[in-house]
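[audit] Reproducing an earlier prediction to check determinism. Same input, same settings, fresh worker. If the tokens differ from the archived copy the diff job will pick it up downstream; this log only records the rerun itself.
[audit] input (325 residues):
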Amino acid sequence: MTQISEKQKLDCIGIDVSKEKLDICYTNNSKGRFLNTKAGFKKLIKSLPSNKDILVVLEPTGGYERKIIYALQTAGYNVAHAHTFKMRNYAKAMGIYAKNDPLDSYVIKSFGQDMYPKDKLQILYKKTTEFKKLENWLTRSKQLVKTIASEKQRHEKSINNDISKSHIRIIKTLEKELKKVDEKIQKLLEQAELLEKSETYKKVKGFSHACANALLIYLPELGQVSNKRIAAIAGTAPFCRESGKFKGKSKISGGRAKLRSIIYMGVLSATIHNKIISKFYNRLIKKGKPHNLAMIACMRKMLCILNAMVRNNTQWDNNYRGCSS
């Protein structure tokens, strides 16, 4: 049986998530509304089909959807994210220009019903409790790093000594807190089942602990999908722009921006310290490729190699030659 025919077995349910409530559209297009609380989650899950042979589709809402996703996955249901921009375009294509929460849940459900069998919608990776804790602490680490960078920029531009001293105090406090957070992440890694993968990623020359942790948390699909799919997930896959005689330049689009920004810095270091990536990067530059294009190609090559490593349970090999960009 093909993958598409297996996917067609799943009926879809759409949920529009807001801060206080959850609007749901069931497989028969009937509607429901529940509170976005633990008590509401229990009632919602109780209202779902007991056979769990369905796909629950949600639209990302800045984090308000995280708790209901965890609750649904814990209850054994398949969950997928529907991209907001694609959702609005899909609604317009259906001729739906009005917008309210019950209507949005119907659009989300219809979008999932159409897109999932075509392999345009992916089931979210089910995360363990340890994985969730690690993800939250890594997010906190990124927040602190970003805040420290902003405060340092303000300090550099300050022309008042007293304000400069205030900046320095804040920076020292934030750096102290960042150190505690990083220690917490390391302890969680030592306890988690993901420790082996983390150590594998850290052995890649040019990759820092931050890059290894980012791969661990933001790209759990490594080793489970094809190289093309992993490049698309990370947002390093080029998409053509052609129409008739027009031949535009291929560009990357979509993907996980948070992951891509961290991997970019790791690969930037790898172009200097990693023999394989360095040779590949320099070869592209000699051919006249722009720096950014060469960097995207290097990121794609690195992810391709890492995907093979995890799939085959092997370690980084400086003499590896098998991955095409």
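[audit] rerun output stored. Observation attached for the diff report: The longest helix spans residues 161-191.
[audit] end
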